[in-house]
């Protein structure tokens, strides 16, 4: 048995050229691009609200959440719907990969050269034969740092 | 008295449940006589019933359970071992308790001697005194076998203990209970109510919310279709969904008595602590509201009650010195009023002194001297709701920390309610809390801004105003860059929704203003467009957006898109409007002589006008609602009767031929503002509201008409309302 509580099955996806994984238990479903209602003056990473079969779900852009460059306007993100502390949040990613079994790999600490914005949302890395998988910590990934309101305030 | 009945009803439901459990436990205990868990549970049950019955002065029930409890405590402590006979005796006791409960339900007390408790108590006592040890072997060994060992004690008690599922058999006491007098199959308390998991109810509300949304969607899609079957099905769906929604909402309704049941104790303790004497009087226990609201209301109400004792009601000595009875009165009243629940907390204490409040407010920098001077006493009193405001001379552990009223108001606003204070120095204070009936589904106005729609809760709406053309430059002024609207002689601060949402300020040739109100703040919200009013299902938005105060939640529209619900108090805070009390806003623009007029059409296209200040409301009635009363025509209106006056014929003009199916009525109030007289003036239609300088001419002067003036380039009769009323003799 692994020393961490991480599952050995990970759902993988790509964000700005990086490979990420999140334990399958945390993933409710994966959806194509959904229509979104923007939330004016919300933190930048909140891209909008999605109607998920009657439930209202916040869509967080992982690129912006992790401090990575924004997606080109014509690229449509995919939704990885994660369930966390009773809340359901959609993480917007570039592309969906396979579900992989990582039981043979050990979770290693995130190399300290990785930007802090990413370190803060990641549990560790798995060194796979052909790539390095950053394992997301959904607890922290779905939180948005409440930056001071950048727009619309009274001067 | 009502109170007691309610407590007893609760006690009955609870006890019935407990007794069912007791039956099961006793039977299980027979299989496993050594189980301490079971014995403790049985003991607790009887102990609870005993305790409550003592409290409710149900003497016979208390006696019976007391003896039972003694026996059970011996069993629990291992002094005796349970035998079949003992089980039988205990079951007989349970039945006697049941019979007593039935009597209590019937008569409200347990004095009825048809239930024989004496023989049951004797049996219990006898069982306790008899040596119990010999019974232990057979009882534990073969409980399943039919052959009961010869009973060492009270053979009469157990006729057929083997039929343990039929505890009604054994002794007389149960017999009278079985043949309770009335044969009507009246459902007992325990049968007519079911305990339901709150989560399940919440889920149902969620689901019904979905259903309502889906219904809205279906209705939107079927609109204008030719398919009759489909339309009929959609209508049925509409109906069923509405009723289901009502039904589910009703299941969540709980009486406010639940909160109030705690009050006597709180008041008693506090009164002792503070050295006050207080009579607590509570009315409207059965006023129901949604359980989530009830929860949210619990703390604010408790706080208000504490305040009333701490700040309101004086010490007996003080009261006597002021010529009041030593005992203060605290009065709680809940009632339904036009779709809202109104809770009043009033005391006959010292009241609030506006002068003191104003001083304190200025001292604490809540308002300026100038602002204080302009405010009327009522507005000043409401300053106690400002954050960081407290006039308590000493900080006590009861109240006076200066956060209280602020938090009270925030909590009440959070559930869409309002709170205000009326007070008379030396006579007392009344705090009135208004709350919506339910939280989950609310009517809202849908507006458009940029490409999105937003919902504004109906509860915050005052009116809609459209300003175009020259009115745009005439009525809107900029005070140090802040736009204000002159509206019927008042200045209304304007807030652009676009700007609040972070857009660039745009110029346009027309302005749609939604006048909204959140407590003492009223402002105009400028939006791109107004859609319609809809029932929306309020859904939470994630904690990631919690810091955005201007949203109250989100909802799903008929087309499946998500829309944000605007939080009007939040918008006001966002724009720093909190510090602007209405007094400043409401300052009369007395500098020019314009009058706001309501221009009406009567008598086949003639124009007439009244000052808008004379108009309290515009109403529309169905012609069928009009009833004759003597020589007058009246309609039922707001729990009263509204006499109608046909304006045209009263001022000597012919009525427009033909009887319309709807009557347009201007409601005019006069007399004492506290309980005004009302009349309804029937007109053809409202043409406009204009603000203009009136140059009156005596042309057309006649009874009921001051004269005429040119309004919007047309000659218009200026109606003399008091003369009109006098001519008819209404309310005189």
UniProtKB/TrEMBL annotation, chain A:
GO cellular component term of the entry, any: cytosol
UniProt xrefs under SMART domains: CheW (SM00260)
Domain CheW-like, residue spans: 7-147
Entry's Gene Ontology BP terms: chemotaxis; signal transduction
PROSITE patterns: CHEW (PS50851)
PANTHER family for the chain: CHEMOTAXIS PROTEIN CHEW, CHEMOTAXIS SENSOR HISTIDINE KINASE-RELATED
Protein's name according to its UniProt entry: Purine-binding chemotaxis protein CheW
Source organism of this protein record: Nocardioides daedukensis
From TrEMBL, chain B:
GO MF assignments: phosphorelay sensor kinase activity
Matches recorded under Gene3D superfamilies: CheA-289, Domain 4, Histidine kinase CheA-like, homodimeric domain, Histidine kinase-like ATPase, C-terminal domain, HPT domain, SH3 Domains
Biased composition (Low complexity): 166-177
Subcellular location: Cell membrane
Residues of the HPt domain: 1-107
Chemical reaction(s) catalysed: ATP + protein L-histidine = ADP + protein N-phospho-L-histidine
Signal sequence interval, chain numbering: none
KW Phosphoprotein (keyword) present: yes
Domain Histidine kinase, chain residue ranges per copy: 199-439
Enzyme Commission code(s) on record: 2.7.13.3
Keywords: Kinase, Phosphoprotein, Transferase, Two-component regulatory system
SMART domains the record matches: CheW, H-kinase_dim, HATPase_c, HPT
GO BP field: chemotaxis
Claim: Chaperone is one of the keywords in the record: no
Top-level division of the source organism's lineage: Bacteria
Phosphohistidine: residues bearing it: 47
Top-rank EC class of the record's enzyme: transferase
Span list, region Disordered: 161-190
Residue span(s) of domain CheW-like: 441-577, 594-730
Gene Ontology CC terms: cytoplasm; plasma membrane
UniProt-listed PANTHER family: CHEMOTAXIS PROTEIN CHEA, SENSOR HISTIDINE KINASE CHEA
Protein name (database record): histidine kinase
Organism from which the protein derives: Nocardioides daedukensis
High-level lineage: Bacteria, Bacillati, Actinomycetota, Actinomycetes, Propionibacteriales
């Amino acid at each position: 048995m692994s020393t961490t509580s991480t599952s050995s099955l990970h759902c993988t996806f790509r964000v700005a050229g990086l490979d990420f994984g999140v334990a399958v238990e945390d993933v409710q479903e994966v959806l194509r691009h959904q229509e979104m209602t923007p939330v004016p003056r919300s933190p930048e990473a909140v891209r909008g609200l999605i109607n998920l079969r009657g439930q209202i779900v916040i869509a967080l852009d992982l690129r912006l959440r992790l401090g990575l460059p924004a997606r080109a306007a014509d690229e449509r993100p995919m939704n990885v719907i994660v369930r966390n502390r009773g809340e359901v949040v959609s993480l917007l990613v570039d592309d969906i990969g396979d579900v992989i079994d990582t039981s043979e790999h050990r979770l290693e600490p995130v190399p300290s050269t990785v930007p802090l914005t990413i370190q803060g949302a990641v549990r560790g890395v798995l060194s796979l034969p052909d790539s390095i998988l950053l394992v997301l910590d959904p607890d922290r990934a779905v939180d948005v740092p409440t930056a001071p309101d950048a727009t619309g305030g009274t001067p | 008295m009502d109170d007691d009945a309610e407590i007893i009803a609760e006690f009955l439901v609870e006890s019935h449940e407990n007794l069912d459990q007791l039956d099961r436990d006793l039977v299980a205990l027979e299989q496993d006589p050594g189980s301490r868990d079971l014995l403790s549970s049985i003991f607790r049950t009887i102990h609870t019933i005993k305790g409550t019955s003592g409290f409710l002065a149900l003497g016979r029930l208390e006696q019976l359970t007391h003896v039972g409890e003694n026996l059970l405590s011996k069993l629990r402590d291992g002094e005796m071992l349970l035998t079949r006979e003992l089980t039988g005796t205990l079951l007989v006791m349970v039945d006697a308790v049941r019979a007593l409960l039935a009597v209590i339900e019937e008569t409200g007390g347990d004095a009825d001697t048809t239930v024989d408790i004496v023989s049951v108590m004797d049996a219990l006592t006898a069982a306790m005194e008899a040596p119990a040890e010999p019974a232990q072997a057979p009882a534990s060994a073969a409980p399943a076998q039919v052959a009961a060992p010869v009973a060492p004690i009270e053979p009469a008690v157990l006729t057929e203990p083997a039929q343990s599922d039929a505890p009604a058999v054994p002794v007389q006491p149960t017999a009278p209970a079985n043949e309770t007098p009335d044969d009507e199959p009246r459902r007992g308390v325990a049968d007519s109510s079911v305990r339901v998991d709150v989560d399940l109810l919440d889920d149902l509300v969620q689901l019904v919310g979905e259903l309502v949304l889906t219904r809205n969607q279906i209705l939107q899609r079927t609109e204008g279709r030719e398919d009759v079957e489909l339309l009929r099905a959609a209508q049925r769906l509409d109906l069923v969904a509405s009723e289901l929604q009502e039904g589910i909402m009703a299941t969540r309704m709980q009486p406010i008595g639940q909160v109030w049941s705690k009050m006597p104790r709180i008041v008693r303790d506090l009164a002792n602590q503070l050295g006050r004497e207080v009579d607590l009087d509570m009315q409207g226990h059965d006023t129901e509201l949604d359980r989530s609201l009830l929860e949210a209301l619990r703390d604010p109400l408790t706080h208000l009650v504490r305040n009333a004792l701490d700040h309101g009601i004086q010490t007996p000595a003080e009261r006597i010195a002021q010529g009041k009875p030593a005992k203060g009165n605290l009065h709680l009243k809940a009632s339904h009023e036009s779709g809202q629940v109104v809770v009043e907390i009033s005391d006959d204490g010292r009241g609030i002194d506006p002068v003191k409040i104003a001083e304190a407010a200025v001292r604490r920098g809540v308002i300026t001297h100038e602002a204080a001077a302009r405010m009327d006493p009522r507005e000043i009193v409401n300053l106690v709701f400002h954050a960081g405001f407290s006039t308590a001379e000493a900080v006590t552990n009861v109240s006076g920390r200066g956060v209280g009223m602020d938090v009270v108001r925030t909590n009440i606003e959070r559930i869409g309610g309002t709170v205000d204070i009326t007070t008379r120095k030396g006579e007392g204070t009344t705090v009135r809390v208004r709350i919506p009936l339910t939280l989950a589904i609310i009517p809202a106005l849908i507006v458009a801004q940029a490409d999105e729609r937003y919902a504004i809760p109906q509860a915050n709406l005052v009116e809609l105003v459209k300003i175009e053309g020259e009115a745009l430059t005439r009525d809107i002024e900029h005070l140090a860059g802040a736009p204000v609207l002159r509206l019927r002689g008042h200045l209304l601060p304007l807030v652009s929704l676009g700007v609040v949402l972070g857009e660039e300020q745009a110029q346009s040739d027309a302005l749609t203003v939604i006048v909204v109100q959140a407590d003492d703040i009223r402002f105009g919200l400028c939006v791109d467009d107004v859609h319609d009013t809809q029932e929306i299902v309020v859904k939470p938005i994630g904690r990631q957006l919690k810091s955005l105060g201007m949203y109250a939640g989100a909802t799903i529209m008929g087309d499946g898109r998500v829309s944000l619900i605007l939080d009007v108090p939040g918008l006001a805070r966002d724009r720093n409007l909190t510090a602007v009390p209405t007094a400043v806003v409401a300052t009369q623009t007395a500098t020019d002589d314009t009058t706001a007029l309501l221009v009406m059409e009567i008598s086949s296209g003639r124009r007439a006008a009244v000052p808008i200040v004379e108009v309290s409301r515009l109403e529309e009635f169905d012609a069928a609602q009009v009833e004759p009363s003597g020589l007058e025509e009246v309609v039922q209106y707001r729990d009263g009767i509204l006499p109608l006056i046909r304006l045209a014929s009263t001022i000597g003009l012919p009525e427009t031929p033909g009887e319309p199916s709807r009557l347009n009525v201007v409601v005019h109030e006069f007399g004492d503002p506290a309980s005004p007289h009302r009349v309804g003036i029937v007109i053809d239609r409202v043409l406009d509201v204009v603000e203009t300088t009136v140059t009156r001419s005596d042309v057309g002067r006649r009874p009921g008409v001051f004269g005429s003036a040119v309004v919007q380039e047309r000659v218009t009769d200026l109606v003399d309302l008091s003369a009109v009323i006098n001519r008819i003799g209404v309310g005189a």
